[in-house]
Amino acid sequence: MVDIKTNFRELIKNKEWKALKNFLNELDVVQLAKLIEDLSEGEEMILFRLLNRKLSKDVFQLLPFSKQAHLLEGMIQNGRKLSNLVNDMEPDDRTAFFEELPAKITQRLIQLLSPEERIIAVQLLGYPEDSIGRLMTPEYVAVKPGDTIEQTFKHIREYGQESETLNVIYVVDDDWKLVDDIKIKEILLASPKQKIDELMTHQVIALNATDDQETAVKTFRDYDRVALPVVNEDGVLIGIITVDDIMDVEEEEATEDFHKFGAFQSAVTNPLKERIFNLYKNRIFWLLALVFMNVFSGAALLSFERVIQSVVSLVFFLPLLIDSGGNAGAQSATLMIRSLAVGDVKLTDWYKLIVKELFVSLLLGITMAAGVALIASFRAPEIIVVVSATMVLTVIAGSLIGMLLPFVFTKIKLDPATASAPLITSIADICGVIIYFSIATWYFGF
């Protein structure tokens, strides 16, 4: 990439525009996309303007939204280049791009579309946000059950160029209702005089346009497909979703869950390019909320002031014990959130898991109690019983909190990832303080 960038800048410096254009058009789309991301603002615009029409479309679709938006801003004055770009984009990729833009800019871009593409864009944008309809493309190949294999190939040659994929051919009736889907391999191996209905199995798996995108992710994972048809409420085939679209959704969902678990308000794409205020805004809500939540830990400590003053060595083990409970809870929550997300665990499984988690956390607590007892034997032998018992109970409490919170959030229709690590840690801290000093108060007879 260093050589490519150096060559690019050398050609610009020498104003060898024809050689530069030839040089760029010889690179593949991935190299060009990476080059654009590495260039300065002025250089990236020069590069993009020199690309031919097909390369412009393919490269643009590989770029992150922030870079797409910046290029778009630079092309506003070049109406023809911009019009070609938005018209050439795949409908599903164009929809994903449009929904990220401010409404006024989206409306302006829609006006640049041809009448046919405008109808498609408005239709896809009309589906609810995060629905399958926003992901699908209307570019596919469909045939009728009575068509012969010979007729099917003629149809594919005529209309297949615009299709998102030719791995699967869809079968529809006269009302355009989905009947079946057939892999291209089966069609290739069939006799030219055979009819499509002879290859049909009537085991088609379809998605509904109004369903949530996570439904599509789960269906792709369960059935291991490269593409799935999308139908409306009447069973009419209106589009398809390909596996590359689902991979983008999975990445987006994973990133969002990861950030939520770290107590971010929303996902941060690139902290290097994000504005300071946006980073602040994304992080401050939970941090501020947890500040007030941790007041309860302070209140609990205050209520045990007498025992703390009498047995000062208790304070030495306080961070170790409450952190252990929080860490155990975060581990348990991570496991549950992931299992709920991929469908390995259902909401109704909580009572089966609570018994298992109880035994696991008990074993973890006993093992960790042995470790803390060893430390206490050197540091403060008089509180070995207190710290050992506390370790067992705080690990159990933290683990159960971490396991149950994702189920509670799912039950009340919230994203289980919202049961973030800092939230679990704060709750476990409060429980740990109460458990620790309650045991100490009982043990020392206060």
Could you characterize the architecture of this molecule?
This protein is mostly helical and 446 residues long. The chain has 3 domains: 2-126, MgtE N-terminal domain-like (MgtE N-terminal fold, Alpha Horseshoe); 142-242, CBS-domain (Roll), CATH 3.10.580.10; 294-443, SLC41 divalent cation transporters, integral membrane domain (Tetracycline Repressor, domain 2), CATH 1.10.357.20. It contains 21 helices and 6 strands. The strands form 2 sheets. The chain has a 3-stranded mixed beta sheet with strand order 1-2-3. Helix 18 packs antiparallel against helix 21. The model has no long low-confidence stretch (mean pLDDT 81).
Give a quick rundown of the structure.
The chain is mainly alpha-helical and 446 residues long. It has 3 domains: 2-126, MgtE N-terminal fold (Alpha Horseshoe); 142-242, CBS-domain (Roll), CATH 3.10.580.10; 294-443, SLC41 divalent cation transporters, integral membrane domain (Tetracycline Repressor, domain 2).
